[in-house]
Amino acid sequence: MTSAEIKDKRIAVLLSGGVDSAVAVYLLAQQGLTPDCFYIKIGPEEEEEWDCSSEEDMEMATAVARRYGCHLEVVDCHREYWDEVTRYTMEKVKAGLTPNPDVMCNRLIKFGAFHEKKGHEYDLIATGHYAQTAWIDGKKWLTTSPDPVKDQTDFLAQLTPWQLEKALFPIGHLMKEEVRQIAEQEHLVNAKRKDSQGICFLGKINYNDYIRRYLGEQPGDIVELATGKRIGEHRGLWFHTIGQRKGLGMGGGPWFVVKKDMERNILYVAHGYDPASAYCSSFAVRDFHFLTPTSLPREITFKIRHTPDFFHATVEEVVDGAHQGEGGPQLLIRSSRPIHGVAPGQFCVVYDSEHRRCYGSGEIALSPLS
């Protein structure tokens, strides 16, 4: 979006305390703007127990807002987070699926609950995401960042069309090292602060501890898929995902998780480096969600994890009802090469053949096709 396009807009910036959103404020200030800044509280109430970093985040956000003369307000969305995002996460893992809480946080909280509380007062909501937007033939599209490692369009691929229309990504055209350089040149307080890792609110809490808190443990057998031999015990299927290699606690490896039997509470594994059973070439995607109202071309690229890797594929809509359900279109993805660790519940994010425009995403179905 050009300076002229945002000049007369009311802009809300979501400040996290990190360097990316800080530089976003700087770039807007460079255009003569003084946006209002907001820090969204989403951590649990018992912050000491969970070792959250929200106090430090607030200090950083306050310093950045003060530096550029911006009003800063804390918006408490922690109840909405735990009611919506945590519920989504626990329902998925309990069903044997692999959820992505950060994807749903963007849709339900940053552009959802925040919008209901404060964002509706603004024309645009700016964040520090590595993503871009472009107007093409009268429609706003989500487009990828030039930084293939940091690109975060996959985390934004469940936004609704109206949410995308209000989204602004001031740093989306920059590489990560450029953002760091700007922060250091401007002597921003968080210039050298490390990027956060893992789920956005957990701080130093382990993801498995988070799941254990809500679902407990449910021990069951670990079985070698090729032989049917019991070789160990798991503490609960919800602690594991398809394609997982680390954290199984067994010797004689490497071992890869290749299947979960929820009814019999059995975790199936395969032995060796990259076993064939850990790969999949075709799979179904349910409830595909479009960021921009359109239709999909036959030739696409896609990704199933937050990595720089895009896969070429053909896509077709499923019409036989075998993978039908409520929501958006049901798709069949046929990858040009086998993919490791395709897990039901993951979001399959679809792009054009040049992986520039992001069409949207859908959830990989329970029974991937072979």
Secondary-structure content class: alpha/beta
Fraction of residues in helix: 25-40%
Order of helices and strands: HEHEHHEHHEEEHEHHEEEEEEEEEE
Mean pLDDT: 89
Count of distinct strands: 17
Radius of gyration: 21 Å
For the biggest sheet, the summary is:
6 strands, antiparallel, barrel
Q: Biggest sheet: strands side by side, in what order?
A: 12-15-14-13-16-17
Total helical segments: 9
For the termini, the CA-CA separation is: 43 Å
Q: List the uncertain runs.
A: 321-325
Instruction: Kindly report the oligomeric state of this protein.
Output: single chain
What amount of the residues lies in strands? 25-35%
Apparent shape: globular
Structure description:
The relative contact order is 0.13. The protein has 370 residues and is α/β, with parallel strands linked by helices. It has helices at 3-6, 19-30, 47-50, 54-67, 78-94, 101-117, 161-166, 176-185, 207-215, and strands at residues 11-14, 36-41, 72-76, 124-126, 132-136, 139-143, 167-168, 220-224, 230-234, 255-261, 266-271, 279-290, 299-303, 311-317, 331-340, 347-351, 357-364. It contains 9 helices and 17 strands. Mean pLDDT is 89; it is low at 321-325. The chain has a 6-stranded antiparallel barrel. It has a 5-stranded parallel sheet with strand order 3-2-1-4-7, sandwiched between helices. Strands 9-8-11-10 form a 4-stranded mixed sheet, with no helix packed on it.
